[in-house]
């Protein structure tokens, strides 16, 4: 009963924290936007007519079309709902939005007070496919994971809300990126693990090991970012963020560290929880298992986790950077130029430090589990 009360108290506090972050007026602290978009509205519409078109297939990729279409589109929402507008849709290789009659699209409506409204085709309306993908993801988690799947799904939703409604807003409006990220890590890890396993020794082992793994990732990145002379100013987005920093106090210097902590959290938590759960099951099956044997088992199980999770992290970073790597190849980068570039230093330091954090989480989790599980009745 006491454990349930503690879990309930944590969930209530977590919910209050999230609601407070969502309702807080961040612009009251400071405010900045680089563009005045008050007259621009992105609204759903449906193509009711194609009055004329002059298009041809791209010779490099037959799935792309080049040329133009004269469109009539009925707006489906907002102040312009029901209005039919006509404009030209220009198709290029990087903006090949080829539409057919009856297709749903997103229209950019620029409606200044003292000028004629101007309409452009922004993109396809991707709302339904995205909702369908999310629904399939949620259904798969529920069918395979059952109750645990539901809890995991709630944890994922909560984590995303914390990042978007709290962490991004707090960092943008001048609060410490490192401090806010560490707070987000504490909240996300605590809520996610409690949702999965309740108030138990398994949760305690996973939580303590996760914090230790994230802390080691932070220390490693701090060391190597100093050796590599890296900061948030070395990223492609730094120039854009500089303008915001003058008005909001956004600390660009520590953004790389905040990013590596968030990106590494999931993998560290995965290894910590999976290894702690495996060792707990060993103790349940073999109650007399000694501490030395438990530690040996922990390292043996952890070796496989290290191999798969390290690949997962490195390949994830490589996958997100594939287009950039192709651009570097096209530009004819030389070896010394590439090895000393900001891009490679940032990507490698983030990927390898996050992976090192995962690797070091194995011995930490093994040690914590050995202390909590061996020679004791498991909760």
Q: What descriptive keywords fit this protein?
A:
379 residues, alpha+beta, 5 strands
Textual characterization of the structure:
The protein is built from 10 helices and 5 strands. The protein has helices at 2-23, 127-172, 177-197, 201-227, 238-248, 255-285, 291-320, 322-330, 335-339, 342-373, and strands at 40-57, 65-75, 84-91, 104-110, 118-124. The protein is globular, with a radius of gyration of 26 Å. It has 379 residues and is α+β, with helices and mostly antiparallel strands.
- Strand sequence of the main sheet, in spatial order? 3-2-1-4-5
Distance N terminus to C terminus? Answer: 13 Å
What gyration radius follows from the Cα positions, in whole Å? 26 Å
What form results from the Cα inertia axes?
A: globular
Uncertain regions spanning at least 5 consecutive residues: none
Work out the helix count: 10
Blueprint of the fold:
Elements: H1 2-23, E1 40-57, E2 65-75, E3 84-91, E4 104-110, E5 118-124, H2 127-172, H3 177-197, H4 201-227, H5 238-248, H6 255-285, H7 291-320, H8 322-330, H9 335-339, H10 342-373
Antiparallel strand pairs: 1-2, 1-4, 2-3, 4-5
Helix pairs in contact: 1-3, 2-3, 3-4, 3-6, 4-6, 4-10, 6-7, 6-10, 7-10
